[in-house]
Write a structure and sequence with these properties.
Blueprint: E1 2-7, H1 11-21, E2 27-33, H2 36-46, E3 50-53, H3 62-72, E4 77-81, H4 85-97, E5 101-104, H5 112-128, H6 148-151, E6 158-163, H7 167-176, E7 185-189, H8 195-206, E8 210-213, E9 224-227, E10 233-239, E11 242-248, H9 260-270, E12 275-279, H10 288-296, E13 300-304, H11 314-321, E14 326-328, H12 333-342
Parallel strand pairs: 1-2, 1-3, 3-4, 4-5, 6-7, 6-12, 7-9, 8-9, 12-13, 13-14
Antiparallel strand pairs: 10-11
Helix pairs in contact: 1-5, 3-4, 4-8, 9-10, 10-11
Length: about 350
Amino acid sequence: MIKVLIVDDSAIVRQVFSRELGQAEDIEVVGTAPDPYVARDKIVQLRPDVLLLDIEMPRMDGLTFLRKLMKHYPLPVIIVSSLTNQGGELAMDAINAGAVEVMTKPGSAFSVADMSTTLVDKIRAAAKARVEKPLQSSPSRVPPPQGQLTDRKMTNAILAIGASTGGTQAIQAVLQAMPRNAPGTVIVQHMPEKFTASFAARLNELCAMEVREARNNDTVRPGLVLLAPGNYHMLLRRSGARFYVQVKEGPMVCRQRPSVEVLFKSVAQSAGRNAVGAILTGMGRDGAEGMLTMHQAGARTIAQDEASSVVFGMPKEAIKLGGVDKTLPLSAIPEAMLDLAQQ
């Protein structure tokens, strides 16, 4: 049984979350708290496995509380924020402070039913996550390693990456090791709408490549990373020698929108052997069949290994299906992707 503590200043939110989570057989809401001060005492008393945490609260904001918590009592934390641009920026700060997931409260784009399914999945993932104390220093631009990564001549191959729980840190690690002229890259990271824009902007500040949220019909070119926008699928298309992305609505696939499955299958169809795929840390099986399809189309494929994954779900499923050429630690994936792109 996964024990959950809900921390939110809204009594209605606490009530709705408690009711919806109570329907899951493997989840128990052991308590709720209206602010971090009450939460602090209940964490010690109830020892929850997962904490649901709002950002904007009275007496102490959630981000300040999260930093204190991860320093003295690290445990899996899911940030639940309102759907605003500012909320997206704060959510990224929370990820850097140690939160394992972010999601939005029910709103115009997210019904209570959708929220319940997604929240249950995220809680299950968080309960299995490896939680470590975050680095004390703020992230800063890290130049690509000197040598092979920067000296080689890049090709017109396509790099495709999929990730979920723990993926924001993993994607940052991969992209920070990439040179400015790396092959055009398309990424699906499971994140809510508007949070992806903040994530892309953060990566753009830290990486040598240009990183931004994808727009429909964007050309995929060397030196550019396109991140699928939250709540939209992203597909790779080809017209002659030009690769571009299609950003579209549609039903959830593998309980996700955007879905890694959708991206990988489109990469297999449009790029075939000209593509290199990597499936990183995450809960569930989104992208596993898509990676197999890429492999069968002649693409080279990589899965992050269990030791370096926050949650070894998506990579494990891809490996089980037989669609993975190499299983590597996160630190070895950037160079391996570039090596395979040149072959």
